[in-house]
UniProtKB/TrEMBL annotation:
Residues 59-230 form the Fungal lipase-type domain. This is Lipase. SUPFAM superfamilies: alpha/beta-Hydrolases. InterPro entries: AB_hydrolase_fold (IPR029058), Fungal_lipase-type (IPR002921), Sec_MonoDiacylglyc_Lipase (IPR051218). It comes from the Bacteria. It comes from Photobacterium leiognathi.
Length: 288
């Protein structure tokens, strides 16, 4: 298994952070002006951004929970049966719903160049001019099919796919990677998630094909990474990297990670008494 390098971690972490604002300048991060597609949720907000530049990597960024409806879907942890390559397995119903819900897809560059036009007017322009870079899909298309439609020509041009997301966005990234693998098995470069809850049951863990390319980043006592809180029912996939007390721990068992986190939390008030804490805060004096 290849290690996740620091610059890769920083890139995906920044992109996941920038997934939450309604907009940001993607060209500042090495992507082409026209190298951006967006999938919009029912409230008109980008839920997935697909970005690419001159390199051979296309990055799919999945946004995490942002409203009450999203958080309720996290609680819908009963099994959803899925069959791929004649292999049945079960995944978290709520996260399966998130990548299969109906939505619309827009080309970001086209919307930037025509900000005063409505979606219907832009669709009319597309029909009249057959602009190759603008693809407006019908509202009854589901998210995962739209992703497949967008990345297919990029993969055909020689690019590889990386997927990243925070919280439930990480769960969506894992399930989307599993789906895309069935159609483009050689095209998935890596999957990197942050604060991700478990996405499936044991059968999904058993059949997940990208364990060696999946990195699940957990930070200290992030309670979401322990969800759904039903022992031995939901299982994580891939390699777990736990960031704790200035170190990176790899594939620490859940019970050990939970116990160490609780002990660290209980001891935290006492840790402020140690001299290294005072030494570490010396930079505050430079600001006075």
């Amino acid at each position: 298994m290849k290690k996740l390098k620091r610059y890769q971690y920083e890139q995906y972490a920044i992109l996941c952070h920038l997934a939450y604002p309604d907009d940001f300048d993607h060209t500042q991060y090495g992507f082409l002006p026209e190298g951006r597609e967006e999938i919009i949720d029912r409230w008109g907000r980008p839920i997935i951004r697909i970005l690419w530049g001159e390199s051979n990597e296309v990055v799919l960024v999945f946004k995490g929970s942002q409203n009450i409806w999203d958080w309720l879907l996290n609680l819908a942890c009963f099994p959803k049966k899925v069959i791929t390559a004649n292999k049945p397995y079960y995944v978290h119903w709520g996260y399966h719903y998130l990548i299969n819900q109906k939505s619309i897809h827009r080309n970001y560059a086209f919307h930037q160049y025509h900000p005063d036009l409505s979606d219907s007017q832009k669709a009319d322009i597309f029909q009249a001019t057959q602009l190759p870079h603008y693809r407006q899909h019908a509202a009854n298309s589901n998210i995962i099919k739209q992703i497949q439609h967008i990345v297919a020509p990029l993969i055909a041009s020689g690019k590889h796919i990386s997927l990243t997301g925070h919280s439930s966005g990480g769960a969506m990234a894992v399930l989307s990677a599993n789906y895309l693998y069935q159609h483009f098995p050689q095209a998935i470069k890596r999957v990197v998630t942050f604060g991700q809850p478990a996405t499936g049951f044991w059968s999904f863990k058993k059949h997940y094909p990208l364990n060696h390319q999946t990195y699940r980043i957990c930070c200290d006592l992030d309670i979401v990474t322990f969800l759904p809180a039903i022992p031995f029912m939901h299982w994580h996939v891939g390699q777990m990297l736990w960031l704790h007390n200035g170190k990176i721990y790899q594939n620490i068992p859940t019970i050990i990670r939970l116990s160490r986190s609780i002990i660290s939390w209980i001891m935290r008030p006492f840790s402020y008494h140690f001299m290294q804490k005072y030494i570490r805060n010396k930079d505050f004096f430079d600001k006075h």
